[in-house]
Amino acid sequence: MKNQIKKGSNSQKGVALLVAMITLLLISGVAIAMIVASGAESSINGNYRSSSSAYYAALAGLEEGRGRLLPTSSNTIAGVSNIPTFGNIMTATQVVYIGNPDTAAGETLAGITTTYPDTEYDAEFGSGKLAAASKGAMIQSLSGTNSSNVPGPMFKWVRINPVTEFALKMDVDNNGTLDQASVLYYETANTPPSLTLAASSTAYEVLEVTTLAVLPNGTEKLMQYLVTPQVYGLNFPSALTLAGSVGSYVGANSNPYKMNGQDGSGSAPAVPGCSTNPATVKDAIGVSAASDAAIVTAGIPSNRKGNYTGATGNTPDVAAVTMPSSYSSPTALDQLIQNIKQNAVMIPNPPNPPNYNNSGTTYTFGQPGWPAMSASNPQTVYVDGSFDLGPNTGYGLLVVTGNFQYHGNSGWNGIILVVGDGTTTFIGNGGGSGQFDGAIVVATTRDSLGNQLSNFGTVNYDISGGGGNGVYYNSCWIQQAQRPPTYKVLSFREIQYTD
After folding, report:
1. Lowest model confidence (mean pLDDT) among 90-94, 182-186, 279-283, 446-450
2. Which residues pair with 374 in a beta bridge?
3. End-to-end distance of the chain based on CA atoms, in angstroms?
4. Where does the pLDDT of residue 195 fall: very low under 50, low under 70, confident under 90, or very high at 90 and above?
5. Which of 21, 56, 106, 218 lies deepest, with the highest CB count within 10 Å?
6. Dihedral, CA atoms, 232, 480, 489, 328, nearest 10 degrees?
7. Model pLDDT, residue 119
8. Nearest-angstrom CA–CA distance, 36 and 112
9. What is the mean pLDDT of residues 364-380?
10. How far is CA 207 from CA 90, 95, 226, 242, 418, in A?
């Protein structure tokens, strides 16, 4: 009996040892798995950080290229190398690079595309096309090491060029072939806007912005935008356009005051890279209906009717015109105004709430918050209320949602849109030498509470004083006032890079 008891005890001790060994083995396995998982997680995190860093470095390159295309940028490349001034186009074979060499690593601006070849261009346009392309001088990036010795984004180059059907592998005109010679445009008059091969006053060239980022650990990102200028597409049938019914028109009584629809007929400052065309003749005053033309004609002093000249050849030249689509109705004009508002210096700031009539408040040229402007630095200004230009000259695109008041020595080069209350008034006695070059539109789009009307309301135009030197149609200043506030992105993609 005693021997049997000892035998069972020894058997149990062996089992306990086996269980302990198995448990230790399991714990060791779990510990090893945790160590391996931790290493894999660290590796994944490291790869993610590198990929993200390269992504944002490449994005910085894309944004530098897109931003510097703007003629309003303080570091614009418009007019530099192969990049044309706004209103002109790049040809299909033109290419421009912005280089961002790491000079501390011995890289040079001239050699950056040799060290980091651009293989994507030939992949899109065809073998040997980059070698045959017309390349502008390499432009230095703004993203180098700053004054605090902090390095900027580590992209190597940005390429800017137009695109073709062949490059996009897209038969835009559906003729069965992929054109290699013609650049593509973005036609804003289409609904919805779309790509086209046809140039027009409402179509704007599509540009490709491509960038390569390379980190010190070798991580690479090649990314690309397709961009086109964000423009308002404004065109004008007359030097002065009165949309909707005319309540009253009181013309200036001085002889120097004229309204002329011939392009460039005034004495505006020249716009670099743009020439007016005297063969282009618009109406002096355009209205919505023949009955409104009669009201305007009756309001012009009898001895000044010869001062209103334009397309009809009659004096005064006042005609019913077809309103452009952008201001064919209060809804269309309000949409245009909202687009302008998003890219303008706004007075007041912060802006008033929607459906608010602020015409009882008058703002003045040069008040706090008013932007500095000149012939070489036109601005886009949105005045939510009435505005008194005073004896000053402005430049650019001006929107006034209340009454627009000006003086004999007032002037403006560009576009003026008087909407909302739609009243323009000359203040003060006597004349002056101020003049308006470009185009003016006056329309009443809202009621007394600030609510949008379904149809244009009544407009009034009163220049019963001397009036200055008048209003002159000028296509260059119309174009200059619509310089793009941004280049909008039509598409974005990441590309596999092979060097």
Report:
1. 446-450
2. 377
3. 86
4. very high
5. 56
6. 10
7. 95
8. 40
9. 92
10. 9, 10, 6, 37, 34
Q: Is residue 101 part of a domain?
A: yes
Closest CA to 160 of 110, 228, 241: 228
Say if residue 91's pLDDT is above 70: yes
Q: Look at strands 185-187 and 194-196 and give their pairing.
A: antiparallel
Are 98 and 227 found together in one domain? yes
One-character DSSP codes across 326-337: GGSSHHHHHHHH
Cα 495 to the center of its chain, rounded Å: 26
Domain range for 187: 94-231+486-495
490/477 same-domain check = no
CA nearest neighbour of 395 among 424, 437, 423, 427: 437
| Cβ atoms within 10 Å, residue 235 | 15
DSSP category for residue 149: S
Q: 254 and 225: one domain?
A: no
> Does one domain contain both 202 and 253?
no
Q: What count of other Cβ atoms lies within 10 Å of the Cβ of residue 176? A: 6
Q: Which of 158, 143, 127, 138 is nearest to 221 (CA)?
A: 158
Order across the sheet with 203-205: list the strands.
Answer: 194-196, 185-187, 203-205
The verdict on residue 77 lying in a domain is no
The number of folded domains in the chain is 2
Would you say residue 102 lies in a domain?
A: yes
Instruction: Note whether 427 and 346 are same-domain residues.
Output: yes
Q: Would you give the DSSP letter of residue 268?
A: P
